[in-house]
Specification:
23 helices, alpha/beta, Glycerol-3-phosphate (1)-acyltransferase, globular, single chain
């Protein structure tokens, strides 16, 4: 019967199983698969010998003769879920060398992804010291009998991936309840990590290939929309990329050579992802310029990347009040989308559309080690650096996030974060394109009144933003504007307590905070509904290794170094690149963090944003956090930031910069004291500025602010 069933699933579902040799280990052992369809028992069962038994519910078995036939037989271990002795009976069976298959979620997934694990499984591991094998069923969520709300197919491809034999980290000094929580968390980490590793090994290895995989499932799905209310389906996106790619190739090919890197100077509009896909299919590397930094900085980035061509738009150049002349004087050719579109005839579009029904794909020359994009760091504390991120880097970060978050096929993304920012590019564009989710891309995150209205009008469910932007939306929005919001992610700067409370009280929404850097594609850690801990930046994503190096004067935590598949290929800047590669793949975040016993990361501040006062290290970030929202009587416009000056007596002195001229040192001292900070954290003086300078990402431009308040030499 096993051979017949194996042949059947092989024919119907192209079924394959990997690492089956792990299943032949002697007991006691637990096999823990994810649970997405009614046929999971079949896919697992055809891989098992007769000494394995499935844990089933004796209560559910009474529903019908079919349930009883399937759930109560020689290959099952029926238990009463409501009985306190259920775990005891399983423990007794395991202690005799038994081998059990247990669906630790306790129910079929309603999301198509891993849901919560019942801690009874952790208790079972604690009591029996049984070995564990995890299993990842890939593709079973697409079966018609899977209860999640996503698209279905009668005979999707299904594969089973079994881990090696795992041993849980037993610690004798822990109580039973602590051990249960530890083992449950450990088990979930193993299952999340296995999903991530499997997707990396078996999924497409370039961004165009991953997008084409999603497009082949739903070619007619509307996937993109911008502020002009122009909608693009997957089919239209790929056709547009194909046509645009051929025109860009003609415009950039010269008698001398065809440059590998091409600049992109465009806002958040549908044309931008079309251009990115067009460049990838040509084997080119887009270097996305940050237009908010000004012409001088963009020219420096252009020179750093060795750009000879930049794809842009006349309408955008005019609207953003950018001057094209300096680029042309520097020998850089600007390629205007308006000119490229004029060369595409209706016949060209018809032929491309017709061809898409026979060969629905882009020709692509990308491998996973090729550079996918060049982004430039924010420059908040120095000159921007050019960061090379590969296709593998970006896809790794996408898959890390998908393994941690229970996104649904019906989720609708709203992305106002600029695509020159790694947060906006990876989480706000590449992830939903690869995952198959609708995206509304909006040109500016600064339209605090408009963004909530458009979000409401488009029934979006996922929103990204920095603390600055989220605070602005929260203040201006109607309480009903975010009625459909499921996921609200904050990144790029520390989430302020006042912002989190505003969203909780006004909209009933919990803000999930993430942490990362451009060099990390960008996400390193994140809080999620399954792993929330307010005030932290969540737990590290699967595949991310970390180490903390001690910092003189810092008692708790250390300087964070990370390594993993999402860490950049390197810098364009020679000195910075040499320093990075000398570290053996470890990236120095420059941040002081602490990591608690559960693995949650707390950001203490940037190394560059610590001041040494009277021999003690003081976090400027902590001082800014204490002052943020501490002066509501001055109105919502009141803003503060902290910089330093040399001080002969104490080494350094703190300067509080504010746009509120009435703010006093006494009020600042009270706010610092209320947060429990020491007197060393109290600024020595106040510097009143017209406005706190910000970068295009919403971060405070500390470099510019520092220059504004320094005494003239």
């Amino acid at each position: 019967m096993k051979s017949i069933l194996r042949l059947l699933v092989r024919l119907l579902f192209r079924f394959r199983a990997f690492n089956e040799s792990a299943l032949r280990t002697p007991g006691p052992v637990l096999l823990i698969p994810n649970h997405t369809s009614w046929f999971d028992w079949l896919f697992i069962g055809v891989c098992l010998d007769s000494d394995w038994k499935f844990v089933t519910s004796s209560t559910t078995a009474q529903k019908s003769w079919f349930h009883k036939f399937v759930m109560v037989n020689s290959r099952t271990f029926p238990i009463d879920n409501a009985s306190p002795y259920a775990v005891k009976h399983m423990a007794e069976f395991l202690s005799k060398g038994g081998k059990l298959v247990l669906f630790a979620e306790g129910r079929l997934s309603r999301t198509g992804t891993l849901m919560k694990l019942f801690d009874g499984t952790g208790f079972l591991i604690h009591k029996t010291h049984a070995k564990v094998i995890t299993a990842y069923l890939r593709g079973a969520q697409r079966l018609p009998f899977s209860p999640n709300a996503g698209w279905k197919r009668c005979f999707p491809k299904v594969t089973a991936h079994f881990s090696d034999l795992l041993s849980a980290p037993h610690e004798e000094h822990l109580s039973t309840s602590q051990s249960r929580a530890l083992f449950t968390r450990w088990l979930r980490d193993q299952m999340v990590g296995q999903q991530f590793n499997t997707e990396m090994d078996f999924g497409p290895d370039s961004i165009p290939a991953a997008i084409m995989r999603a497009a082949s499932d739903e070619p007619g799905k509307v996937i993109l929309e911008d502020a002009t209310q122009t909608k693009l389906t997957y089919r239209e996106l790929l056709i547009g990329a194909q046509l645009m790619g051929s025109r860009i190739a003609q415009a950039t090919t010269s008698a001398a050579s065809s440059p590998p890197r091409i600049g992109v100077l465009l806002p958040n509009v549908n044309a931008t992802p079309v251009v990115l896909l067009a460049l990838w299919q040509l084997g080119k590397v887009p270097a996305i310029l940050n237009y908010s930094t000004g012409t001088a900085t963009m020219l420096a980035c252009t020179e750093l990347a060795g750009l000879k061509h930049i794809v842009t738009s006349r309408a955008f150049i005019k609207r953003a009040k950018l001057d094209a002349a300096p680029f042309e004087q520097a020998g850089v050719k600007l390629i205007y989308l308006e000119d490229l579109r004029a060369t595409i005839s209706s016949l060209d579009k018809f032929i491309a559309l017709l061809g898409s029904f026979f060969n629905f794909q882009l020709s692509t020359f990308n491998s996973h080690t090729d550079t996918a994009v060049i982004l430039f760091t924010s420059g908040s504390e120095g000159v921007p650096k050019g960061v090379e991120l590969t296709h593998r880097n970006l896809l790794a970060n996408v898959r890390q996030l998908l393994a941690k978050c229970d996104l649904l096929d019906g989720d609708r993304f709203f992305n106002a974060m600029p695509l020159f920012h790694s947060f906006g590019l990876t989480a706000g564009l590449v992830l939903p394109l690869v995952r198959g989710n609708y995206i509304f891309i909006y040109p500016s995150p600064l339209h605090y009144r408009v963004v909530p209205t458009v979000f409401y009008d488009r029934d979006c469910t996922v929103l990204f933003g920095t603390n600055t932007f989220l605070s602005g939306y929260g203040r201006k929005a109607h309480p009903y504007d975010f009625r459909s919001l499921r996921y609200l992610f904050a990144g790029a700067e520390k989430l302020q307590q006042a912002t989190a409370e505003l969203w909780a009280q006004k909209f009933g929404v919990r803000v999930f905070e993430g942490y990362g850097a451009t060099e990390c594609s960008p996400c390193i850690s994140a809080t999620t509904p399954l792993e929330p801990k307010h005030g932290t930046a969540g737990r590290f994503l699967p595949g991310v290794e970390h180490k903390l190096e001690p910092v003189d004067g810092v008692a708790e935590g250390g300087r964070l170094f990370v390594r993993g598949p999402n860490i950049m290929k390197g810098y364009l800047n020679a000195d910075a690149n040499a320093k990075f590669h000398a570290g053996g793949g470890w990236y120095d975040t420059g941040d002081i963090v602490s990591v608690d016993a559960e693995g949650f990361v707390s950001i203490r501040g940037r190394m560059k944003r610590f001041a040494k006062i009277s021999g003690e290290m003081v976090s400027l970030t902590a001082v800014e956090d204490a002052l943020a929202g501490a002066f509501p009587h001055y109105g919502l416009r009141c803003a503060t930031a902290v910089v330093t000056r040399p001080d002969e007596d104490k080494g350094e002195a703190l300067i509080c910069c504010t746009n509120e001229p009435k703010l006093t040192l006494a009020e600042i001292r009270e706010a610092i004291k209320a947060k429990g900070l020491s007197n060393l954290c109290v600024p020595k003086e106040i510097a009143v500025v017209k406005e706190i300078p910000k970068l295009g990402t919403g971060k405070v431009n500390h470099r510019e602010l520092h220059a504004m308040v320094q005494p003239a030499k």
